[in-house]
Amino acid sequence: MARCAARHVHVNRGRRQLRGDDPEPPTDAGRHGGELGQAGAGECRFADESAHREAGESVMARAILLVLLFLLSWILYLDRAAISTAKDLISRDLGLSNDAMGVVFGAFALAYALGQIPAGWFADRFGPRLTLTVVVASWSVFTALTGLAPEFATLVVIRFLFGLAEAGAFPASARAFYTWLPPEQHGRANGIIFSGSRLGAALSFPILAGLLDGFGWRVAFYVLGIPGLLWAAVWWAWFRDKPAPVAKTANRPLAEIFRSRAMLQVMGQYFASNLTFFLCLSWMLPYLMERYDLTRERASWYSMTILLVGATAQWVSGFLTDWLYRVAPQWSRRGPALGGFVLAATALALLTQAGTAEMAVALFTLATFGTEMTISPSWAYCIDIGGGRAGSVSGAMNMAGNLGAFVSASAFPALARWNGGDAGMYFVLAASLNLASAVLWLRMPYKERTL
């Protein structure tokens, strides 16, 4: 286009010389200005058309990227939440207590947390294309292997390896967003892909309920291994790591970012967020069944409804985050997260008084909606402060979050048992952590001062 603009200047001067409007004497270029003008105009029309075509291709490519990562997130949580639906059948088949299943849930959460920073570094170093192909194919294999587990120890090892494999999914996605999308689109992009995770988790309940009743839990896990393998093949064939860069964030040394107040605060609030949300993927369905004497089918539909509402929160928060980026950037990340944590804390505190299944489901829904409002701004904030280190930085935040998930998996049954079977103490703890996280967001440095 610069060449085209220069040609226009040259051609227009030639035309002026031929008309006598230019004080400089005519040159060969001037005498041939008309000819050059026609050629220049043709070239510029071609350049404009090419630019429009490239812009359209860019929009289409970004749309395909979002669709693929939405499906990735859907598959990830479909596979992850499956074990919660199958919990009672696995427990009976392998002779496992609630505490033993807490260890199984916790093994995944611990491995997922430990794998975050290495996976994020791998994505920054080798790119999202290779990273996501490897991790999705790997966790799909471990999903199928879950169905082969003969006893407790093997099941724990498989779920631990499954967690390690899944750890790379969202840090690598964040790294792809940094390269492919401008900052004002990071909110909705994260909202879209995380809504896929909630849809996957929600739909896993009725899907797994049907598979479990029809074929048993082992066959169900074999079947769940297939979608991820297909996705990995498509991703490797289509995605490329380095389109034209659009993010303008400068890269800071990773050690400097990890020592910053912003990094510590975003990790702290994500611990509380995941401690709350992981309850929905692990103990919520068994809790509803046991506390309110529900069938697995009815509890599954309740759980699905809660997570579907959570998926809508992802879209609301994502688009709100991007809108605020344009009109009040200092509140773009902070506002949705702050409101979400206050809502979640209120609902969790009221859960201690829920006397019916319907009231408990309504409060779980509000708590989940509030928690989900915090996800998109959290990941957008990590891309803000991480820049080209977005994979590692978001991985560190997600590590802290999944340490919260690990605590949730083990603390819920332990606190309920210690409190005579009443889970109220857990809900009070979670509500307190959510309020503390709201305070952290009030004090978190605004993006422009963290770069």
Summarize the structure in words.
- With 451 residues, the protein is mostly helical.
- It has a single domain, classed as MFS general substrate transporter like domains (Growth Hormone, Chain: A).
- The protein has 21 helices and no strands.
- 52% of the residues are buried.
Considering the chains and any ligands shown, give keywords for the structure.
single chain, 451 residues, mainly alpha, 0% strand, disordered N terminus
Would you identify the CATH H-level superfamily?
Answer: MFS general substrate transporter like domains
Number of structural units classed as domains: 1
Radius of gyration: 26 Å
Distance between the termini: 32 Å
Record the SSE blueprint:
Blueprint (H helix, E strand, L loop, with lengths): L1 H18 L8 H4 L1 H53 L1 H8 L3 H17 L1 H11 L1 H19 L5 H15 L2 H12 L5 H30 L1 H22 L15 H6 L1 H21 L2 H9 L3 H32 L6 H18 L5 H16 L2 H12 L3 H29 L5 H20 L3 H4 L1
In short:
By secondary structure, the chain is an all-alpha fold. The protein has a single domain (46-450), classed as MFS general substrate transporter like domains (Growth Hormone, Chain: A). It has 21 helices and no strands.
